[in-house]
């Protein structure tokens, strides 16, 4: 969406998926809690942890666990985990603080990020960059920014997404239509939350195929 605003002549079509023009207060709040988890880790040391070798691993893992909750929905978490206990194969089976399967899952997601040796400071700066990003910056309003778009637009949202709820993309679509832009809106019916565009990506094929057909017809 940013590219379509900044470089209106660069593309014929754009299909933003599960995103927004700027983060909501709730999304910023989740990011801030994740950042605090890292910064409260004694090994963070205000970001100066590279030479000593001890990294803020626990804080980073916790930040990832918090983020993972936002990628799913209550609906899918209830379907997949419910109140099932951690499996016998789990190292956390008898852990007082991780007796449920959903707890096991969150711990494993945190550990996965650590195994990738992801840098904690990078996590801080990337999440803050997300908070600060706003496509209306430099313009009088979001409407003025969107008015620059010349490309055909297909906005795809996810019914159960708590990071970028459908109403966010519907508002962008309605604004584009008022501006006379070629905008279409598709809401994916999925219980997987934000992760749906990865888990059930095939549901996006029909609207994306239709977009490609429109471009082909316009080029003839």
Helix and strand layout, with pairings?
Blueprint: H1 2-6, E1 13-14, H2 25-39, H3 57-71, H4 74-80, H5 101-115, H6 120-132, H7 142-146, E2 152-158, H8 166-178, E3 183-188, H9 196-199, H10 205-219
Parallel strand pairs: 1-2, 2-3
Helix pairs in contact: 2-3, 2-6, 3-5
Question: Could you explain how this protein is built, in words?
Answer:
The protein has helices at residues 2-6, 25-39, 57-71, 74-80, 101-115, 120-132, 142-146, 166-178, 196-199, 205-219; strands spanning 13-14, 152-158, 183-188. The chain contains 10 helices and 3 strands, in the order αβααααααβαβαα. The chain is globular. α3 packs across α5 (101-115). β2, α8 and β3 form a beta-alpha-beta unit. The chain has 2 domains: 2-22 and 135-219, Rossmann fold (3-Layer(aba) Sandwich); 26-130, Rna Polymerase Sigma Factor, Chain: A (Orthogonal Bundle), CATH 1.10.1740.110. It is mostly helical and 220 residues long.
Helix content: 40-55%
Architecture per CATH nomenclature, i.e. the level-2 architecture of the largest domain: 3-Layer(aba) Sandwich
Mean pLDDT: 94
H/E element order: HEHHHHHHEHEHH
What is the gyration radius calculated from CA atoms? 21 Å
- Number of DSSP strand runs: 3
Short description:
This protein has 220 residues and is mainly alpha-helical. It contains ten helices and three strands. Strand 2, helix 8 and strand 3 (183-188) form a beta-alpha-beta unit.
